[in-house]
Amino acid sequence: xxxxxxxxLLWLAFMSFIFIASCNExxxxxxxxxxxxxxxxxxxxxxxxxxxxxxxxxxDASPGVVSREWNFPEGTANVSNSAEQNVKxxxxxxxxxxxxxxxxxxxxxxxxxxxxxxxxxxxIVVTVLNPVKTEIKANYINPDGTLGAALDISDxxxxxxxxxxxxxxxxxxxxxxxxxKWNIDGGDPATFDGTDTxxxxxxxxxxxxxxxxxxxxxxxxxxxxxxxxxLIKVIxxxxxxxxxxVVDKNGAIALVxxxxxDETSLNAADFNVTITNNETNIPATVGTVNIDSDExxxxxxxxxxxTIYNNDIINVSYTKGALKxxxxxxxxxxxxxxxxxxxxxxxxxxxxxxxxxENSTAANWPYTNWGAPWxxxxxxxxxxxxxxxxxxxxxxxxxxxxxxxGHKTTSGDNITFSVExxxxxxxxxxxxxxxxxxxxxxxxxxxxxxxxxxxxDWAVSGNPNFGSDFAVGKWxxxxxxxxxxxxxxxxxxxxxxxxxxxxxxxFYMDNLSVSEASLRP
Length: 521
What we know:
By secondary structure, the protein is mostly beta strands. Helices cover 4% and strands 48% of the residues.
């Protein structure tokens, strides 16, 4: 009888034997030696994985064995067969290999709690990995978004990149590394540690920059790091300059442009800031305007006598004046660009929560069984739209339907984050609506609500509320401010409401966040 043993089965067999033996150690009179299969390996807790020239010890602790024979596939290890109880094998060939053990017992032998027979065949699956080896490639991204020519990947290549344009980096690896880390001097992002095989990097500041990439694994331990000096040279551009976002930085309002701005072109009178809080207007006077000393593509606006808070709604406008880039391209006017606060996202920094949907599947966001109508929806992980990165969650809530989802590991455990009682937190989400359906004016607008467990606040507000005037076809940030009644680990159940809408509502959801917040007194 033939069996293939995975590591957990090996361990269960061993523990079953220990249990049976311990139950009978004080009552040995008249007992015959049992026949029971008990096999182990030194790497059974690590999926029997080793690197080339790594060793695994195979052990047969089965009582009642008359004879045994270990067999190793030809050419894979320093041993081909053995009748020894314990065999240490050094593997020389990468791949997935089946190590077999034939055992003959005195009596019919137990496997776990089942009696199987006197002769048993067992297969142990061993994975032998090559050393970790990495290679990177890079291509220009054309202005129309298509992939362009390849870059020269070598030291001092100084591949010329027009300021505010992007490069796509990709990698090929061998040896099954698990952790990946990019360090991209002068790029946005400057670092990246996701598992995506491709990453788009925008270069905003003129200069010459290095790049490094590391791929590592914990078991069997190994890794490879490659780096290149002076790989990218960013040169002046004639492209239009874009205002990419408005954020806060050290208490100031930061205008993040697509490339470096000329400080001599700044004029405080060209900018206007409005602040509202709970529909109350807060006086806001522009004081000084200057270029950030660390990042030349950021213009900092400092207000006279006014502090900004997380629950303020802050909008910035610019009337075209002399503002221009360092390479001489003038900025166009813009009106009411809303500030989105930079936050330390607990879901990102101190949790395994896949806040950006980059490293999970739809199976990791399951329905949590509230019953109808909360099962009337569909969810998929999509690459069609992303507020950041390459993926988001695409949701369709059925007509008169709803949604209730959690975030779980592949084994079904809730993925949690930790908070403290007495602090104020902001729960944020970015959404991109493709269809609002047909809201029923007599009922409630569709919405999302982030309920947490345990100690749920069932009165938490909609985040967002999908009113009939909600923006369609653009990414919109929504947030709500909450306090948790107890300190500890929490998990979200995200509830979507569409019961009063006779049509489907569809949207993308990305970049969930939980962060400490400072509210206006």
